[in-house]
Amino acid sequence: MRIVRLANFITERSGGLRTALRELGIGYQRAGHEAVLVHPGARYGEVETEQGLVITLPGPEVPRMGGYRVLLDRARVADTLRGLRPDHLEVSDRSTLRWVGRWARECGVPSMMVSHESLDGLLRIFGGGRSRWVADRLNARSAASFDRIVATTGWAAAEFERVGVRDVVRVPLGVDLEVFSPGRHDPALRQRWAGPGDVLLVHCGRLSAEKRPQLSIQTLAALRAKGVPAVMVVAGGGPLRSVLQAEAASLGLPVRFLGHLRDRDELADLLATADVAVAPGPIETFGLGALEALASGTPAVVNSASALPEVIGDAGLAAGDGRGMARAVQALLERPLRREVARARAEQFPWSASVEGFLDAMRSGGPSATAATGGAAVRA
């Protein structure tokens, strides 16, 4: 089966979505399928990778979004899809690529949209007071256009179920349990970032408005105000980096900003060496960074408004503001088996299970998938 995947809003410095696309593509290839990923870039390109063929189509940058690009040339995208002759279409964008579902249905190609982000949440942050009404309308249209909607958590599925979509397929994402491991704990690395007796916190995530990274700074400030000798390392870049650096400096907080870590081994070493990870995003639909921390044996404090409490289970705690997160950090540090519990939770999310779940969703078909002559029209 040739699985063609479309995605927007990924860059060389992307985190969770880029990781998910890579791991799913690798899994599809290993399962004997042909995976093709189409995403925007500065210019056209094709490259064979371990996740299959990756095609870059020119797409403009979104202003003030830290380098994210989108595929806006519908005619070129449609021509590319016709040339690829997909057996199945997987779309990872809830907004600008929603039209692809209608194209697929007209061409008899089975399709599914993957809910990697909360449209309701994004509109709530960026779209003003009518976000719920707009999100509901767009989600209902998406469900009508695609044969399948796949959500990574019950939290992500809820905004579709709210508008009457009852057959949302739930497939959790996964984590590389070999790369992210407690065995990567590095005492020398710890000495670089923290002194004897310090509590080492790590924020791993993009520094942009929807991620609420300022909550991590507030968490550190609240801990220091209580006399807890906490320090923080921030692994991630984004448009708010300079603002956050200025805020931390003005408060006299010991925060090191490392930027985006492209080396997964470097990130894995950091996560395994930290005492607690902080994942403050309020609209995360899954939270790969937090799961990678758990796999590294590091418990996580997450935002109670997001899907992360569902993901981390008893391997962490949730709160809604900086002071609450500071209390959660202290509570986790008092748990004697916190690292073992964190690793055990992560082991429930291997990428192999995610790949099989996505393939099962494709095999389950839909209106266009059951059309006997549908795909032939595209491949002729």
Automatic annotation (TrEMBL):
One of its GO terms (biological process) is carbohydrate derivative biosynthetic process. Residues 15-174 form the Glycosyltransferase subfamily 4-like N-terminal domain. InterPro entries: Glyco_trans_1 (IPR001296), Glyco_trans_4-like_N (IPR028098), Glycosyltransferase_grp1 (IPR050194). Residues 197-347 form the Glycosyl transferase family domain. SUPFAM superfamilies: UDP-Glycosyltransferase/glycogen phosphorylase. This is GDP-mannose-dependent alpha-(1-6)-phosphatidylinositol dimannoside mannosyltransferase. It comes from the Bacteria. Pfam families: Glyco_trans_4_4, Glycos_transf_1.
